Amino acid sequence: MNHLGEVLVTARRACGFTQEELATAAGVTQAALSRYENDLREPEPDVLARLAAALGVTETFLAAAGRVHGGMAIDAHMRRRLTAKPTVWRQLEARLNMYRMHARLLFEEVSVRAEQRVPTLDPVDMPPSDAARLVRMQWRMPIGPVRSLTRWLEAAGCLVIEEDFGTSRVDGLSQWIDDHPVILINRRSPTDRKRLTLAHELGHLCLHSVDVSDDVEAEANEFAAEFLMPIEVIRPQLRNLKIGRLHDLKREWGVSMQALVERAHNANLMTAGERANMHKAFSARGWKTSEPLSDELTPERPSLAENIGQALAGKGLAANDIAHLAGFASSKENQLFPAPHPRLRPVG
After folding, report:
1. Pick from 138, 188, 192: nearest CA to 167
2. Which of 217, 236, 333, 337 could pair covalently with 309 via S-S, beta carbons 3.0-4.6 A apart?
3. Homologous superfamily of the 1-73 domain (CATH)
């Protein structure tokens, strides 16, 4: 069954268009677009072409996305604050769904060989902390702090996409594209928060790919804490924490001071009163919203999607060819798998 209506709604929402705006851009009436989106009527081929152009995708993309098993608009795991506006996070969820489908189309033509894989585990059978230790063991990660978390994720075939969300109230989202996981993270987040978000979303991908429990956020938080700060390694460093010591630990482990305090408290190495005093000290210094040292941490920079674009260009594909493979209308719209710009050569 073709769910073209669902695809049109998702694509429109991802672009930030109202129904009226898309109808105007595609040269159709709003009433007609409403019928297309509710699957009450199929658009004629010329209308479908105009809708695709207005949405920055190919007609092939719209057709293929409409045939996806389970539908196009799949709920995403999302790390967001309670004050995040529904319109904002729904648009981001729609964008992730679009990226998921663009990647799915490309991966049908291009095979991506991963050194490792992101395992899918059952949180009922395996507590989140144990799952985090298992993933570290399977990936043969060194004991201690995680260096370049993005590289580890991409080596496991995870597509990490970074963009400015236009808000600091949503940190990241994740979904599976068949056998490939995808994570969308907020470019405006500081590095320590990005790293925790990446580990948090990895927890969702590992633990919540099929069955979802009642407390998925707590499970993803527990996974992330153990993944980035293995308790058996960090425990001696979390005893008798002082503000000055937190600076050093932040540099070493690449996580926020607030995350270190939470780790110490959850491991029973800090009383509730000591934790409250720490948070008061953070508030007095303005660190609850902006911690120091974050800009000293090694940035997390995704490269897999860009490398795929470069590899395809190296095989002789033009920028528009790469864009069309992934279902983008042109190279201008293809921000996901960009082809390298041709270098100018001196003449004469």
Report:
1. 188
2. 337
3. lambda repressor-like DNA-binding domains (1.10.260.40)
